[in-house]
Design brief:
Blueprint lengths: L1 E5 L2 H18 L4 E4 L6 H13 L8 E4 L1 E3 L10 H10 L9 E2 L8 H14 L5 E4 L21 E4 L2 H6 L13 E4 L2 H5 L3 E6 L5 H9 L18 E6 L22
Parallel strand pairs: 1-10, 2-3, 2-6, 3-5, 6-9, 9-10
Antiparallel strand pairs: 4-8, 7-8
The protein binds fructose -6-phosphate.
The site of fructose -6-phosphate has 13 residues, from loops.
Length: 257
């Protein structure tokens, strides 16, 4: 894993947007894996600006998001479908055929999970997967205890995750109890991974990710140690309690994007 230390959220967002742009420039039919939540909002804003300024060609781009809340329709104001539409798809004028999220209101969720896996496979897999990290170490909505061999599936959200995401809902009881999420194994199939972490809230998770050498299913992000091309962009707040950071470890190398 290569760690890039940055000062703050803005710098993280700019750097991440640069890496997304580099990926798209190097391969115009890139398949991007995307995340939602507070962390990538700045990245999407910076990427939109860059793409428009530089007139990036995005017509061959395909995107797959990590997850969606179970029970929310794509039009629901708190759905990740709408989040993506507002933050990225609409500003970039991406066509609906280019963008994919699992349907949280599909009548048969298991079939939807299978369909989603199939779709990713059909386009040849994900080139670059963007990730945030939960305070409990979740990636996607793979909560602690999820098997490292998991594919897209339905996950019961931890009370702490529902609490962390309550800020987006009127009442905390409104946060759905389940999500449909790519599995750990689906995430690890991506050819490269970019994990972003910003803010003090993430410091314990980032410390464990960087300092604990074990890969354990009770800490989903540790599965990333099994992947050869992971880059982490973290700000000083998220790195606050990590003792040693910015040197890429000797045995790992960052894949040029
Ligand atoms: C979102 C996702 C989650 C978030 C994580 C951090 O699609 O898969 O793993 O990345 O919960 O959320 P924020 O960025 O809001 O702190």
């Amino acid at each position: 894993m290569q760690v890039i230390r940055v000062k703050n959220y803005n710098e993280m967002s700019e750097k991440a947007a640069d890496m997304l742009a580099a990926q798209v420039k190097s391969k115009s039919d890139s398949v991007l894996g995307l995340a939602t939540g507070g962390t990538p909002e700045g990245t999407y804003k910076a990427f939109v600006q860059k793409a428009l300024q530089e007139n990036l060609s995005l017509s061959e781009l395909t995107t797959f998001n990590l997850d969606e809340y179970v029970g929310l329709s794509p039009q629901h104001p708190k759905s990740y479908h709408l989040y993506m539409k507002n933050h990225l798809f609409q500003p970039l004028a991406l066509q609906p055929s280019q963008t994919n999220l699992p349907r949280g209101n599909a009548p048969h969720l298991e079939k939807e999970a299978e369909r989603y896996e199939r779709m990713i496979k059909e386009v040849g897999g994900i080139d670059l997967q963007l990730l945030g990290i939960g305070e409990n170490g979740h990636i996607g909505f793979n909560e602690p205890g999820t098997s490292f061999t998991s594919r897209t599936h339905i996950e019961k959200l931890n009370p702490t995750t529902r609490e962390a995401n309550a800020r987006y809902f009127e009442n905390k009881e409104d946060v759905p109890e389940h999500a449909i999420t790519m599995g750990i194994s689906s995430i690890l199939d991506s050819r490269s991974i970019l994990l972003l972490a910003s803010g003090e809230r993430k410091k314990e998770a980032v410390k464990r990710l960087l300092e604990d050498e074990n890969t354990r299913e009770d800490f989903p992000a540790s599965s990333l140690k099994n992947h050869p091309y992971v880059t982490i962009i973290a700000d000083e707040h998220a790195l606050a309690v990590v003792s040693k950071t910015d040197e890429p470890s000797e045995k790992d190398e960052a894949k040029p994007l």
